[in-house]
Amino acid sequence: MAMVEVAQLAKKYDGGFEALKGVDLSIAEGEILALLGPNGAGKTTLISIICGLVTPTGGQVRVGGHDILADYRSTRRLIGLVPQEINLEPFEKVLNTVRFSRGLFGLKRDDALIEDVLRRLSLWDKRDTPIRALSGGMKRRVLIAKALAHEPKVLFLDEPTAGVDVELRRDMWEIVAGLKAQGTTIILTTHYIEEAEAIADRIGVINRGRILLVEDKHSLMTRMGRKELRVLLDSPLETLPAALEGRGLELLDDGRLLVHSYDSTAERSGIARLMADLAAEGIAVRDVATRQSSLEEIFVSMVHNEEDEA
Ligand SMILES: Nc1ncnc2c1ncn2[C@@H]1O[C@H](COP(=O)(O)OP(=O)(O)OP(=O)(O)O)[C@@H](O)[C@H]1O
């Protein structure tokens, strides 16, 4: 079942700026979707609309099968939001902060549940610490704990690891994986492609208010990802021998490096033929290596292509 369904969603801000221009998106129960996009692409606007913080100017959103405008209360209860900004009460203690969040949804106090949430986020030992005495990373954990206090089915994380150190980023990824294992549907926005690569099931790319694609992470990487065979030659070539021309080979590094790009999903990579031809031409090879383009390269080229077209 689709947990979140977004259809033709549009947002024009008061000044006339169109932040979303007809976004369609369907997110299955229990999946992790990473939304990638440059600054100003519309990621926060999209999340804010689904969470009921910003009113759309067109289209429809359903969460758990309910319309977010007609059925605001019941959909809002299904959603947890971890905002980009740290917006915590500095003098409040951790435990009270998280308990209070549950109360906001009109739910009965549940100490066992709050304890479980705090333990999962390694915050239990800090339960009596006032927020202002926590490190930035711990504050981010409190934001997640707050978002989980009313047992949401869908969790939105708006740039959860912006500006946090590598260690905490990895902790965060583990926390997200743990939530997924418990069946939570997760949508996160990120600027860190490595993050999407590490934890997402599907990747969505958004730019200038439009979704450019949504695709399974692995299939995206194999489909868009070119592979290269890099052949280091014993002695440099001035030009390509005639026998090797016309198949897109590149000669780099003053003729020392021969680069053969191929589609890793194609039946024939052309590698065997290339090696045979090199041998036949008497060209000695010192070393070979392959490299796969990363999600980052795919993303950058996709956004650039779009800008060129515009
Ligand atoms: N309240 C507002 N009024 C007018 N324009 C707005 C408002 N909020 C956002 N915008 C504009 O809408 C566009 C999309 O903003 P949004 O915050 O959704 O982008 P984003 O993808 O989350 O960016 P970032 O990665 O920088 O957080 C931006 O150009 C922004 O300036």
From TrEMBL:
Gene3D superfamilies named among the record's database cross-references: P-loop containing nucleotide triphosphate hydrolases
GO MF terms held by the record: ATP binding
Superkingdom of origin: Bacteria
ABC transporter domain sequence ranges: 4-233
Alphabetized Pfam families for the sequence: ABC_tran
Keywords per UniProt: ATP-binding, Nucleotide-binding, Transport
InterPro entries, per database record: AAA+_ATPase, ABC_transporter-like_ATP-bd, ABC_transporter-like_CS, ABC_transporter_ATP-binding, P-loop_NTPase
Name of the protein in its database record: ABC transporter ATP-binding protein
Species assigned in the record: Salipiger mangrovisoli
Lineage: Bacteria, Pseudomonadati, Pseudomonadota, Alphaproteobacteria, Rhodobacterales
